[in-house]
Every structure is written in structure tokens, then in C-alpha cells.
Amino acid sequence: xxxxxxxxxxxxxxxxxxxxxxxxxxxxxxxxxxxxxxxxxxxxxxxxxxxxxxxxxxxxxxxxxxxxxxxxxxxxxxxxxxxxxxxxxxxxxxxxxxxxxxxxxxxxxxxxxxxxxxxxxxxxxxxxxxxxxxxxxxxxxxxxxxxxxxxxxxxxxxxxxxxxxxxxxxxxxxxxxxxxxxxxxxxxxxxxxxxxxxxxxxxxxxxxxxxxxxxxxxxxxxxxxxxxxxxxxxxxxxxxxxxxxxxxxxxxxxxxxxxxxxxxxxxxxxxxxxxxxxxxxxxxxxxxxxxxxxxxxxxxxxxxxxxxxxxxxxx
Amino acid sequence: xxxxxxxxxxxxxxxxxxxxxxxxxxxxxxxxxxxxxxxxxxxxxxxxxxxxxxxxxxxxxxxxxxxxxxxxxxxxxxxxxxxxxxxxxxxxxxxxxxxxxxxxxxxxxxxxxxxxxxxxxxxxxxxxxxxxxxxxxxxxxxxxxxxxxxxxxxxxxxxxxxxxxxxxxxxxxxxxxxxxxxxxxxxxxxxxxxxxxxxxxxxxxxxxxxxxxxxxxxxxxxxxxxxxxxxxxxxxxxxxxxxxxxxxxxxxxxxxxxxxxxxxxxxxxxxxxxxxxxxxxxxxxxxxxxxxxxxxxxxxxxxxxxxxxxxxxxxxxxxxxxxxxxxxxxxxxxxxxxxxxxxxxxxxxxxxxxxxxxxxxxxxxxxxxxxxxxxxxxxxxxxxxxxxxxxxxxxxxxxxxxxxxxxxxxxxxxxxxxxxxxxxxxxxxxxxxxxxxxxxxxxxxxxxxxxxxxxxxxxxxxxxxxxxxxxxxxxxxxxxxxxxxxxxxxxxxxxxxxxxx
Lengths: 315, 501
Hints:
Chain A is an all-alpha fold. Chain A has helices spanning 2-29, 34-38, 45-54, 61-73, 87-122, 127-141, 144-158, 174-208, 211-218, 223-260, 266-275, 279-307, 309-314. The longest helix of chain B is centred in the first third of the chain and has 20 residues, at 2-21.
């Protein structure tokens, strides 16, 4: 067991190292002098010199890399070049916002996608099935930014039901938090609902053909019970797996939605940092994400090892 | 349990109603400001927040006259080397520290000596600050400097609490303590900056809001949607393309002011090897290029007529504009003739341009206009940071770029065209221009200054290292519930006397 974890760690460490090299040197490949951007419009030579010295921009690139890595090893991810806020603090502030958005979007996707999938599987080849398919395809094809702007125009400007953009923490004002998040979550969720609907439909179609469903029907059970209790439960497995995968995608997909609805989340943090050449934030965010992924993988591997006896003998 | 739930519900309902009673103002900004420390910050948008947060030694009128703010009056010594300033005795910083002469001294010291200060070049001419009374200071200068008062009307003149500045040092931006009409409450990066009314403000009677929230909403469409839905009370930098729809909307107000800055094309005339090409070497060709452009049409096509066509570093509405050189009408025949005179029927010119939709569209219009005079313009679309880098290194022929503008005319011209100018990327150098512009910045006599700038314009119009195109107009959109807003050419939002009807 311990040796297994040790071996996994031995792989994780060089991976993290490689990611850090990749993140750092890729940024350095970008054209443009960050000091020029940071010095402000006047580009005062004294200020330029100070910035170059403070951020070690004059030193050899390997030395710069060393400064960055040794800082991180001590838990210092640097400070935002733009706002002077510590990068870790920024990440801690923004990540929960995006997770809230992703969870709400996931719930909306499930509420729409799963029943629609079941319905179109049960009523395969009927008008219901075609309608559900058309709606699903539209959900997949309509770009997020377009749907977002249209919803803002309709729901906020014309009807005045919901705030057009912004964010409030659920711990400060739960009602307002829900109000600000429902539209972006809907935009993000509808695209996923389509994927979810298609997968639910095919999983259900597969299950509905099985012997035990026929048996259940033969027993004279109500169709509702057959579908929901016998068929759907068995179709759930691939749906749950897919949902878990989609959730990861949601965190990434939130970037665009956060831009439209001005939600101060993880996606907006990194996009704004790239545009304002806030290198410390870009590097910190990418690094944290990478380390997070690697750690999650490690945990998953360990769990797998604990849950699946065959893994142990395979060692 | 049920009772407490009910109570919580009632509470949340009442909290929904309550804010409507207090006068809370919500302002939409185009970007999230950078660090909120006047000595360290460098963005335009940050200055909009400061206008409510930090008082300055002096302020400006919409006509760019310098007027008192924290200073009540000032006088220059005859040699122009000493500026004596009398200060308010009724102003207090947000932390209770009184505002006095010592505070001014400490602030100038911070602007000059904080390693992170971005203000150094603005106050470098100050030799020392002497406290000549509890509420009087004398600035001793290294040389006469007519631009100093204008600097004091901006970030260099913003006064920070010396107590707070000493305690927080370089981290003051996390909780800035100034002496303006509103004090800092909180900031959530990329989301909001909240200020509340400072009850001890010396001019508190003119302030009509209890709270001001600045919300950065970069997307212009979404920013306007927020105003229309009532989530914002006003916004800055409305897109020119939305101007017409706001003017038509009875529930919104439209306000505008031509900015202090300019947009144009900088030509590389002496910055390294890439200046060695016809347009870099021959002023006639540059004049031909300028004549091939219809600045009015550019304004109509790209900016829906909302901006101001221009041909000088100051807009035609500025008192510093030289009326002897009006915005030239398009003259393709003359442009062709000039080009011919220089020995060309047609000429390739490469212009770099920032890769955003508006600037790209601008340059495409320029490209097609110049083509008619024989210029074969090749656009090099670049990300802004790279454009800036290449431009300062001299790796360009021509570059579409602008300047946000300064209150004092010196700030729009001296550093761009003097031989040693800090942002002279064109590397234009003419001792005559240096002499004229140096003289203009050292005289405190407005007439003498205007004379010098006009004389410099005669030369620069012939040499044309920069081809000016237009001046951005700041556009604000406000809910019709507001009244008393005055547009200023510096693009700031001053909340004195603004209120809900």
C-alpha cells in the first residue's frame, strides 16, 4: 500500500515539475515586455528599471525560474502585479464562486436533461422524441455568449425579473445570490442538458430492451414503475459517470459565461490576468489547477486501490 | 423552528426593501481598477474611483482652469522657483488624522521616494517641501515648472493620511485612507469597490449619497443592459455605437465631453534602421498620407460621429489648439502630387495596430482612403503589449497609438517630440522644438506659453512625426432619476451636487 502511494508520488513530482517548466517558459515566449505594460503610460525609465529589478526581469531566465519555484515551495505564489493582492488569496476568493456556478448549472442540466432523455427513450420515434431532440440539438448549437446576452435583454431589461449581471455570496444574501446566478447557471446548464439528454436516451433505450424490463412488464407492473424503478435505475450508472466528467468540463466552460455575466470567478480571474499581463496570477492559477488535478488523480488512484482488490494483486 | 424561519424570511424581505430608502449610487466601470494607491496606480479607471475617494490639492473646471480643493490659494515667486500654497484647515483624513502642511510634505515625500511610486517623474522637479505654517507649504523647485499645478490636479496631488501611509507602507492599496467625500469600505477584485459617505468631509453638504458602489462590467452591451434594468444608476464609456439608442431612450440621460487625449499614427523617423524608408525620411510623404484621409468620414464610419476629428495633440475645443492649423480637408489630388514630388507613384507602408475590433476597423478605413492617393498600406495586427514593445524598440515603420491626455498641454507633447523625450518612440529630434517646448513648460504666463506651442505647431505640422486623427469623446449614460452631473474632459465622475431627483 505505502509503496504504491510512494510510487504514485514519484510520478506526481516530476509531472508537477514539468508543468511548472511549461507554464513558466511558455509565458516567457510571449512577445511584449511586461515591464512596459506595468510601468504605465509614461514609461518612466526609473520606474522601468525598478520594475525590472523587483520582478527579476533583468536576470537570466533560469534564475527567474528559480526565484518563482523557490517562492512556491515556501507557499508564496507571489502577488498580483495589478492589484497587489496575494495570488493564493485571489484563488481562494474566486474558486468557490465558480464551484457554486458549476453546481447550479449541473442541477439545471440534470433537471432538464434526464427527464427529457427518459421521455424521448420511452416515446421513441414519436413527436415527443423528435421535439426533445430538436431542443437538445439547439441547446448544443446555440453559443453561450449569444444566449446570455439575449437572456439579459429579455429577463433583465424587458421583464425586469432578475439582475443583469454581478454576484453576491450566498452567505451574505442567499436570495440575491440565487437571483444573480440563475441566468448564468441556466446558460451554462442548457448546453450540458443536451449532452445529458442524449446520453440518458441511449442508456435508457439499451436498458428498455433487456430481459428484466420485459419480465417486469410481463408481471403486469405499471409502465411508470417499469420505467422509473426498473429501467432508469439501471441506466443511471453511465449517466452518473458522465455527470462527474461534465462537472470538470463545467469549471472550464464557466470562463465565457463568467465574462458575459461579470461573475468574479476563477475563469474571469485568469482571462483578465492574461489580458492585463498579470503574470504572477496566470502562473499561480495554472500551477494551482495543475497541482489540484494531479492530487485528485492521486487520490482517485489510492481509492481505486482500496476499493478494488484486483488492483492489489496486479501490483 | 418555524418561527425563526419566518423571522428570517421577514428579515430578508425587509433587507430587500431597506436599501431603496438609503441613497445608494451604483456606477458601472469599463475595467477593474488596478491597485488603489494613488502613488502606485497607473490606470485611467482607477482615477474615476479616486475622484470620490481622494481629494487633491487642486481641481480643474470643465474648461481646464485650476481651482482650489485642499489648497485654498497659491502664488508663485517671481523667479518661478517657489510655489506657496495655503491649505484648508477644516479637512480631515478618513482615519481622523487632520490634514495639514506636514501631511502635504509627507505625501510628496512618498510620491518621490516610495520605490513602487509611479509618480516620480511628475514630482521630480520638486527640490523640497517646506512647512511654513500649520496650513501653509512652500514647494521649492529645481527649475521653473508650469505643469506642476496640473500634476497636483491629478494623482500626484492626492493626499493620503500620513498615519495610514506610514503604517501600511506599500500595502496601502488594500485599504486606502484619503480625505475625499467617500471612504473606502471594501473591494472584491473584478466585482466591486464599495465606498460610503465620509460624514466629516469639509464639503459634506454637497454630497447626496450614503454609499457608492463601483462595478467593473467590461462588456459594453452588458453594462448598458444593467443600466436599462436599473441595476446601475450610471455608467462611463458608453460605446459610441450605442450613443443613438441611449439618446432615444426617455428613461436615460446622455452626457459627453471631448477627452484630453488623442489617437493617431506615430511614424518612425529616427528610431533605428527601420526609420530608413520613404515615409520615415520624407516629411512630404507624411503630409501626403495625412491629406489622403477624411477625418470626418472616419469619425462618422467608425465612431458614429460621436468623437472629435483632430490634427493636433489637443482637441479643437481646447484653449491650446492652434487655430492657424485647422483640421485639413481631404485632398487626394494634392496627396498624389506630393507623393509624385517625392518620387513615387505608389508606396508601401506598414502600420502596426492593436488587435481590437475598433482600432482594426479604424485602420481599415484609413487603409482604403490612403490607397486612393497611392499608399499601399499593410496592416500589422498585434496584441497591445507586443505593439508597445516593438514601438519603443524602433521595430516598426508606423504605429497606430494614442495618449489618454493630460490637463497641462505639456503632458500631451513634450515627451513625444523632444530629442530626449521619454516616450519619443518616433525619435524625432529638432533642437528648435526642444527650445520652444522647454520654454513653454517653464513659463507661468499663459500667453507666452500659447505663443511657444503655436510656434512649435508650425514646425511640427511641416515635419509631421505624428499624424493625429481624432480625439475620443467620453460618454456617460445616466438614469433619468439622477440630476446635477457635470461632464469633465478628464473623464472623471465628480459626485458633488449629483443627486437622485
